[in-house]
Design brief:
Elements lengths: L2 E6 L15 E5 L2 E4 L2 E4 L6 H10 L4 E4 L3 H8 L4 E6 L7 H15 L4 E6 L5 H15 L4 H12 L4 E4 L4 H5 L5 H9 L5 E4 L5 E5 L4 H15 L7 E5 L3 H15 L4 E5 L2 H7 L4 E4 L1
Parallel strand pairs: 1-2, 1-6, 6-7, 11-12
Antiparallel strand pairs: 3-4, 3-5, 8-9, 8-13, 9-10, 11-13
Helix pairs in contact: 2-3, 4-5, 8-9
GO molecular function, one term: lipid binding
Protein name: DegV domain-containing protein
Pfam families: DegV
């Protein structure tokens, strides 16, 4: 029996991330539209080109979830498949995956397919995918893998701090005046996912250093992270990501920290300088 683990492209992992594991790993890409240009969020995407295009384009940009058939194509490749999607509260990706699941099970009812709504994005999906690899390699049956993975997904927190408010303003999610004011004051808002998968702003510190301190303080208050995994995703901000890693090691007593460059979708929302932390 063959196993597959599938994710949408908000996971920030390349398609070869689980090479050598014996599992099929597939990434179903979202698409980002900037003016007349469409960018497919796959391994070939040049994120910097897309970000430069977004910066110069004066109008709003948009993202689109994968079609059900794109999920179905991946589901057909394995006997047992668990897929993980970004939060359904902010994207139609989860529902698209469910439709793809239904399509494949109607064709091949002997297959086992489950779709997890992560209620998060970015590094949150990375942690769930790695947990799935761990559970599957332990030899657990499909139902046990799904039950433990779902429980693990509900334990994950996500914090983030956008590097710029330009994209939020262009797409009507923040007023132009509020964006100008926040930028001029150097405000680096720290936000988090909710249990329902939506977003709430926690604090509005001024400057990246204070934002990093607020993130680490929140992490230590919300969870005992001693020896636990953490994933930091950054949008062209390796220095900030490294400083954050050092603070986490010192305060939260864990060295199991992965730093990733954001892919297309997470770069689209975090903008240059942005940071996301899953734990």
């Amino acid at each position: 029996m063959t196993w597959g683990i599938i994710s949408d492209s908000s996971c920030d992992l390349p398609s070869n991330a689980f090479a050598g594991s014996g599992l099929h790993f597939g990434v179903v890409p979202l698409k980002i539209t900037v003016g007349n240009n469409e960018y497919i969020d796959n391994d070939e995407l040049n994120v910097n080109t897309m970000m430069t295009d977004m910066k110069s384009y004066k109008g709003p940009s948009s993202s689109a979830c994968p079609a059900p058939e794109e999920w179905a194509k991946e589901f057909r490749k394995s006997d047992k498949t668990v897929a993980v999607t970004m939060t359904s509260a902010l994207s139609g990706t989860y529902n698209s995956a469910l439709i793809g699941k239904k399509m494949v099970l109607e064709e091949s009812p002997e297959k086992s397919i489950h779709v997890i709504d992560s209620h998060t994005t970015g590094g949150g999906l990375v942690l769930i995918l790695r947990k799935l690899e761990e559970l599957i390699t332990q030899g657990l049956d499909f139902e046990a893998v799904v039950k433990q993975a779902e429980a693990y997904a509900r334990s994950i927190f996500l914090l983030f701090s956008c590097g710029s408010y330009d994209n939020l303003v262009k797409n009507g999610r923040m007023s132009r005046i509020a964006g100008i004011l926040a930028s001029s004051l150097g405000i680096r808002a720290v936000a988090a996912n909710t249990p329902e998968g939506t977003i709430r702003v926690l604090q509005k510190p001024r400057g990246e250093e204070r934002a990093l301190e607020a993130i680490v303080r929140t992490m230590s208050e919300w969870k005992n992270l001693a020896g636990q995994p953490v994933v930091i995703s950054h949008c062209n901000n390796p220095v900030g990501a490294q400083r954050l890693k050092e603070k986490i090691i010192h305060v939260c007593m864990t060295t199991k920290i992965t730093i990733l460059q954001t892919r297309g979708l997470t770069s689209f929302y975090n903008d240059n300088g942005g940071l996301m932390i899953a734990f």
